[in-house]
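Q: What changes when uridine-diphosphate-N-acetylglucosamine is included in the input?
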Amino acid sequence: MDRIAITGGAPLVGAIPVSGAKNSALKLMAAALLTDQPLRLKNMPRLADTRFLGKLLERLGARVVEMEGRGGPETIIHAAELTSSFAPYDLVRQMRASFNVLGPLIARTGHAKVSLPGGCTIGARPVDLHLRSLEALGAHIDLHEGYVYATAARGLKGARIAFPVVSVGATEHAMLAAVLADGETVLENAAREPEIGDLADCLNAMGAKVEGAGTPTVTITGVSKLKGATHAVIPDRIEAGTFAVAAAMAGGEVTLTGLRPGLLDALAAKLREAGATVRDEGDTVSISRNGARLQAVELTTEPFPGFATDLQAQFMALMTLADGESVIRETIFENRFLHAPELARLGADISVSGGEARVRGVGALHGAPVMATDLRASVSLVIAGLAAQGETVVNRVYHLDRGFERLEEKLNNCGATVRRLRGGGSAEAD
Ligand code: UD1
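A: The predicted holo structure follows.
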């Protein structure tokens, strides 16, 4: 299995184009199942996760074509006819977002058999809210031997669904099913992540009637049929935020291009508080640090527009070199501090108690072999490696390949020394 070696110490200077958002792309791909016409997705990230979901869509009968368009990578998904409504364990186990095909399959065909996603290294991650939403919309759901058997013989019906906790995935799943339901669906306490707005924009381009996406109340008026559309995937705020933190940590100046206004606000506020300079021009954001020491800051992860849990590990890496003690509280997922002991191998001083980590800044980090534990945790180790003295080798980089497109190339174009070492290490399922 591949590893990544980072020679630390060089500042990052240059421009980095931000790719399309993984988390959005995966839900947009599932939306393609809702119509017999082609859905053309522009600004698609090319990642292990999107390739993987493409394979599942093909298994269900869709044609998936990846191509290089004039404006960048595109994927055309044409689900003219669905030949199967079965998503097997093998395919859902490897990538949780595969579970999102359940709603569209029920909405389009009236039945589905989809594996439960199973556990995950960052906590229990249940799907009860997904299933309750589909039941509220009139689907009959049975759980049997790890599979969800769902039927809605006479179609789905609009409903009022109040989420007890904010869930990005459940909000999206309910939207994906409700667009073809009979009547009006109101989602209360809906997630407000930009990816929700992106999904609503795409569904509306396909002929759906979704209002209020980006607010806590989303109203969907069901339609009987959706059509094909062309839609550009929103920029990846987590990828962008990761490079922003990397620039603050390694020093230098990085300009992120291809963004949209408002995607990095919560992170930018914390970076400024820590002593980095952030120049936000909407589509372009520059991050720099002129060599002055960073300052410790406190942060708590929250649903959007709060500080994203997917940037928590990266920010923790940054705080390992800040003056003072920073307190980082994780409120979205339990067990999301797996990167802390790995950062400690580089010399970081971190203590974790429940959902709270205390990071006492040290003078320097020193390169060491470390283990990637999950997607965002693994990139925090790369960032730390950029600022560490000597060489850091990150094992199990398949985690990185799931969610970061051309990571080495993008960093090396800014003066970093990041090499991929082919093979070695032991294979292990995610
Ligand atoms: C999505 C993102 C992930 C991000 C997360 C939070 C994708 C592919 N992944 O994950 O990168 O970290 O949003 O921004 O888009 N919960 C339940 N029952 C459910 C569903 C969720 O209790 O049925 C809980 C979870 O355990 C968690 C909280 O709700 O504590 C939020 O999770 P959720 O927003 O659903 O995260 P995902 O959609 O899985």
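Observations recorded in class: The chain has two domains: 3-19+235-429, 22-225.
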